[in-house]
Design brief:
Pathway: Amino-acid biosynthesis. One of its GO terms (molecular function) is oxidoreductase activity, acting on the CH-OH group of donors, NAD or NADP as acceptor. InterPro entries: ACT-like_dom_sf (IPR045865), D-isomer_2_OHA_DH_cat_dom (IPR006139), D-isomer_DH_CS1 (IPR029752), D-isomer_DH_NAD-bd (IPR006140), NAD(P)-bd_dom_sf (IPR036291). The chain is α/β, with parallel strands linked by helices. It folds into 3 domains: about 300 residues, 3-Layer(aba) Sandwich (Rossmann fold); about 150 residues, Rossmann fold (3-Layer(aba) Sandwich); about 35 residues, no CATH class. Strands 2-3-1-20-19-16-18-17 form an 8-stranded mixed sheet, with helices on both faces. Strands 11-10-9-12-13-14-15 form a 7-stranded parallel sheet, with helices on both faces. Strand 4, helix 2 and strand 5 form a beta-alpha-beta unit. Helix 4 packs across helix 7. The radius of gyration is 27 Å and the shape is elongated. The C terminus is likely disordered.
Length: about 500
């Protein structure tokens, strides 16, 4: 059975096979390198982003970077580091959350003092081959995770995190803008001035000024006040859109069959109405905006020909979620037949609507603000640090939310176990620990789909943690991975890189 125990400390230490295991050998006294920020995918856009990021970093020089609650400043720490591999250009505000020395962060494998224990990315299309056996977690600076092979990561016991809500205000503001773009002929009027009036009047200011006044009648629109906005999805973004629309004097009808309690608290109660089904929302709405994730077989073509038949002919569609949620061929057919006269505003192209005058396509601007980039990166860093240092899981798309505050009488020996979500697995694990003389002070067991996650605080530190992990895996074949966490920056049990066991993803011998 292929498994790993990894202790990543020394510069250039790399995994090597020894009797079916993978180890990284390092000298204990080596000081880890400070944070390095280098993009691995240096496209023109990212070079421009990095130049802006460098300017921002210089302007903030001398300011405290801060960290998650689980991480204090580096101080005189001289031990091993958590190694984080980045893809894309990550905001320096987010990278600054990682305490230098305690964390080594780079887009270049050669700049890390050992194999990566975490991956942080934005839009990079992550390949399974890029995720080494030392990786414990992956975090995306953004909400969507379609660029990450989540299914394969689940099979390997690797949680995938995102940053829901970090870009919510940026998307909300773009939705508000799009309500006006759909209603007032703003873009059409601007194009008319630049491409028609200025050309025909040959730069004559007096004639241009007269034409601008005269031609305004060509672009009459409607006000959004008093109109009804249908909001599909009432999470972090949808709830903000609801409040913004109400502030503009609109009526709002919302639909969300899986509304969480936290999201419900953000809604304005009786100031809006909630539809019992989508058909009710379609029938009432003058505008429809979508804020749900793309899930194949669930939200694929959520708005299709049948849905459009339920809508008002003049309904305007706003889509800043995912292009596949709206059936572009159905929209085109409705335009061609005259059954749909409203506009479709999105930041996704569609092969069936390319060049159509009623399809207003923007660059993918939803989260493209400096503030959203900073918020997403900072949230991603804090989420990953919390997981690496305490085993806490929040904002994961494939693992269950798991939060267990430390037990006051614990030795600091915290064991985090990922196993297949099958009957009897937890009983096998706790029974085995009992046979090894391990007294459990507290534990939490959660599950999501085929994955279960257990966090256990032990009264005493095991004499041989690595041997205990090996024996646990042999006794409990449903265990996918395990790691001990202790006082990680005191060079005690669970120091960065130590006591991490992972079974071969295929489970083969």
């Amino acid at each position: 059975m292929l498994s790993t125990h990894v202790a990543v400390r020394a510069p250039r230490a790399r995994a090597h096979a020894t009797r079916g295991r993978v180890h990284a050998r390092v000298p204990a006294a080596r000081r880890p390198r400070a944070v390095v920020t280098r993009a691995s995918d240096a496209t023109d856009d990212e070079i421009e982003f990095l130049e802006k990021a460098l300017k921002l970093a210089k302007s903030r020089k001398g300011a405290s970077g801060g960290g998650a609650s689980a991480s204090a400043g580096a101080g005189s720490y001289n031990g091993a580091s958590f190694n984080v591999k980045t893809f894309n250009a990550i905001s320096p505000v987010g990278l600054g959350k990682f305490p230098p020395g305690k964390y080594a962060v780079s887009g270049d494998d050669g700049a890390l003092p050992g194999d990566p224990m975490a991956i942080m990315l934005r839009s990079h299309k992550l390949q399974v081959s890029e995720v080494g056996p030392t990786v414990r977690g992956i975090v995306r600076c953004g909400a969507g995770t379609n660029n990450i092979p989540t299914k394969e990561m689940s099979e390997r016991g690797i949680p995938v995190f995102n940053t829901p809500g970090a870009n919510a205000n940026a998307v909300k503001e773009l939705v508000v803008c799009s309500l006006l773009l759909a209603s007032r002929g703003i873009l059409e009027g601007n194009r008319h001035v630049n491409e028609v009036i200025n050309v025909e009047e040959n730069g004559d200011y007096a004639k241009i000024s007269s034409r601008i006044e005269k031609d305004k009648a060509m672009f009459g629109g409607m006000e959004i006040e008093g109109k009804t906005l249908g909001v599909i999805g009432l999470g972090a973004i949808g709830s903000r859109v609801v409040n913004a629309a109400l502030g503009l004097g609109m009526k709002v009808v919302g639909y969300d069959p899986v509304l969480s309690l936290e999201a419900a608290w953000r809604l304005p109660g009786d100031k809006m109405s909630r539809a019992d089904d989508l058909d009710e929302l379609f029938e009432k709405s003058d505008y429809i905006t979508i804020h749900v994730p793309y899930i194949k077989g669930v939200t694929h073509h959520l708005i299709d020909a049948r849905a459009l038949s339920k809508c008002k002919p003049g309904v305007h569609l706003l889509n800043f979620a995912r292009g596949e949620i709206i059936d572009g061929s159905a929209v085109r057919a409705a335009y061609d037949s005259g059954k749909l006269t409203g506009k479709y505003v999105s930041d996704f192209s569609d092969p069936d609507l390319m060049g159509h005058p009623r399809h207003i396509v923007l660059p993918h601007l939803g989260a493209s603000t400096e503030e959203a980039e900073e918020n997403s990166a900072a949230m991603a860093a804090e989420t990953m640090m919390d997981f690496l240092e305490t085993g806490t899981i929040r904002n994961s798309v494939n693992f269950p939310t798991t939060i267990l505050p430390p037990h006051k009488n614990s030795s600091g020996a915290r064991l985090c176990i990922v196993n297949k979500n099958e009957a009897g697995a937890l009983g096998e694990i706790t029974t085995f620990l009992g046979t090894q003389g391990c007294n459990i002070l507290q534990q939490i067991n959660t599950s999501r789909d085929g994955i279960a996650y257990t966090v256990i605080d032990l009264e005493k530190i095991p004499a041989d943690p690595a041997a205990l992990q090996d024996a646990l895996a042999k006794t409990c074949p449903m265990v996918v991975s395990s790691r001990f966490i202790g006082s990680v920056f005191n060079d005690e049990l669970g120091s960065p890189g130590t006591y991490f066991w992972v079974r071969d993803a295929t489970g083969s011998a």
